[in-house]
Design a protein that fits this description.
The protein has eight helices and twelve strands. The protein is α+β, with helices and mostly antiparallel strands.
């Protein structure tokens, strides 16, 4: 219900601006670099406050894990650049810890700033920034890996061995461009354009640019109006098909891009000439 409402609101906003804004669909855990960069810092906490979430957990008899200032919470600090400095709440257990990262452990009125042995100075600084964001003015207790107190281990359910395996992100593969069409039976068909360039973006076509880490559906100005409105649904059919054949994640970030309004994170995959680009009016 919440997802459908968000989609309707985003579509209404886009339509009010004549479809010029890039419309994106982003799933939790699959945030793209340009999305993360909008939040400084980006902190993802457990649970939610929407009526849809509360109804879901009530119907399924699940516990409400929504973060509060009083709860025991473990926050992971990993990337530090503007495009990957997402921090997120993880299960408050010792097996969540990683030597390559920093963690904030909130337990009552205390926040521990835990530094893994392979973590960086930038991670230490970001951890302090996030702590100030969550609990302004709180005094941090520093806990370097190997020097933890019994109170620290008690809060995470007891001492465990700590991994040093780095968390890997989705690999960006060579991009592929496809034209899309439907056969007489209504089945989606795609045809790859090899060695593609800007000139392959024809105004009467809908095309898919697939980088494996992200998917773009590009819509020409002269595309049928009904197809324009169904662009996300058409792209989802491609994602479903590519998921079974190529292992594409069903939660891959998806962007709807209209001719003449291409963002830099789309044009970077082309030798782009802005003089050729059509400007919407």
């Amino acid at each position: 219900e919440d997802q459908k409402m968000a989609t309707r609101l985003a579509t209404t906003m886009s339509n009010s601006l004549k479809g010029r804004p890039v419309q994106g669909r982003i799933f939790d855990g699959k945030e793209s670099p340009q999305f993360v960069a909008l939040f400084q810092p980006m902190v993802v906490l457990k649970g939610g406050v929407s009526s849809g979430y509360k109804k879901l957990i009530a119907d399924k008899g699940l516990p409400d894990e929504t973060y509060t200032a009083e709860s025991i919470a473990l926050i992971r600090i990993s990337g530090t650049s503007i495009h990957n400095n997402k921090t997120m709440q993880v299960d408050a257990v010792a097996t969540s810890l990683n030597s390559t990262e920093c963690f904030l452990l909130q337990s009552g009125s205390t926040i521990f700033n835990w530094h893994g042995n392979q973590s960086s100075i930038e991670q230490h600084q970001l951890a302090a920034k996030v702590a100030e964001f969550l609990r302004p003015g709180v005094a941090l207790k520093h806990a370097k890996e190997g020097t933890e107190t019994s109170a620290f281990w008690f809060a995470v359910g007891g001492k465990q061995s700590i991994t040093s395996k780095k968390v890997t992100n989705d690999i960006v593969r060579d991009p592929h461009l496809f034209t899309l069409s439907f056969n007489k039976a209504g089945k989606l068909q795609e045809e790859e354009i090899y060695n593609f360039g800007q000139d392959d973006l024809l105004t009467e076509d809908i095309l898919i640019l697939d980088t494996h880490a992200e998917v773009f559906v590009w819509i020409g100005q002269n595309v049928d109006q009904k197809e324009k409105q169904n662009a996300f649904e058409i792209a989802q059919k491609y994602i479903d098909k590519a998921g079974s054949l190529e292992g594409l994640s069903p939660y891959v970030p998806l962007y709807k891009v209209t001719e003449g309004n291409e963002p830099c994170f789309f044009t970077t995959y082309f030798s782009w000439d802005h003089a050729k680009a059509t400007v919407c009016t």
